Amino acid sequence: DSSSPIPTFPTLPTYEITEEELTPSGLRPLDDNTLYRYLLADRRPNGTFDTNTSYRRLLAALQFRKQYKCDTIVSSLSSPSTIPPTIRKSRRLRVGIWAGVDRNNRPVVFERLGQFFKSDNVNKLSQEDWMMSYLYFLETHFYEMRKSAMRSGCCNVDRIVYFADADGIVKSITNRKIWKVLPLLKTLVKLIECHYPEIVEHIVLFNVPKVASAVYKVVKAFLDPVTADKIELFSGVPYGRFKELLGQDVIPVEYGGKNRIEYPQTASR
After folding, report:
1. How confident is residue 101, by pLDDT bands cut at 50, 70 and 90?
2. What's the farthest any 2 CA atoms get from each other in the chain?
3. Bridge partners, 165 (sequence order)
4. What separation in angstroms does the CA of 47 have from each of 36, 39, 44, 197, 199?
5. What is the pLDDT of residues 42-54, one digit of tens each?
6. Percent of the chain with pLDDT over 90
7. With helix as H, strand as E and coil as C, how does the chain read?
């Protein structure tokens, strides 16, 4: 109906504003949670905010989103048939699932990270394709946060919880394929820290063998200290820690829970 007024920005969640309604800059208005995440990313050791640095980080992130057409990614998440074949392939090569939410309504990811490390899958897509795949994964964070907030009635779901199964790390070290993955991992970590700060509450790595400690030291060297402090390492399956954070219906069956969600093995092609 052409007589209906166009909604002004404050009446809509920012992710629902169409590209046609944006200003010529193409930059999207922001909510308080987003602004606070960027302030936290550049918090000084004394607890005060470095607003100038946060401002520059935020502008760079908005320009990045425009350059990589993140609005198109957001739109495709609710229409799976529009997701590019390369992205669907990447999800077979690097397997992660959204298993539910934790006890504070934060979305939960389980990933078969060790299987990816020991495979040669990093070479089956270009680095640009892997980066686009990871952008889809990152934008899904916000999609799942919004779903959880609407479902629970909670107005502030702004982080996820990440669990990575490191089973396979030993083989990745002996076959030396892990060293092919680390440059990509470094690129993706930089992407998160620059443009998607403060979106993870807990990072739990399990089935981590002692021999992997040397690899972890390499990875930790390029992690932001705040991110590194969130990482918890376990040599086996930490069922007790899982139960502290998650309900039985969220923990996958293979780790002792009751969640029968499809959790495929990593594909080779």
Report:
1. very high
2. 68
3. 206
4. 13, 11, 5, 17, 19
5. 999 898 999 999 9
6. 53
7. CCCCCCCCHHHCCHHHCCHHHCCCCCCCCCCHHHHHHHHHHCECCCCCECHHHHHHHHHHHHHHHHHCCHHHHHHHHCCHHHCCHHHHHHHHHCCEEEEEECCCCCEEEEECHHHHHHCCHHHHCCHHHHHHHHHHHHHHHHHHHHHHHHHHCCCCCCCEEEEEECCCHHHHHHCCCHHHHHHHHHHHHHHHHHHCCCCEEEEEEECCCHHHHHHHHHHHHCCCHHHHCCEEECCCCCHHHHHHHCCCCCCEHHHCCCECCCCCCCCCC
* Amino acid sitting at position 222: F
Whole-angstrom Cα distance, residue 1 to residue 213?
Answer: 62
Most confident residue range from 72-81, 182-191, 229-238: 229-238
* Whether residue 1 has pLDDT greater than 90: no
Q: What is the mean pLDDT of the chain?
A: 86
Would the CA dihedral through 93, 230, 101, 158 be positive or negative?
A: negative
Q: What is the pTM of this model?
A: 0.85
C-alpha triplet 133, 134, 137: angle, nearest 5° = 95
User: Which residues are bridge partners to 111 per DSSP?
Assistant: 96, 164
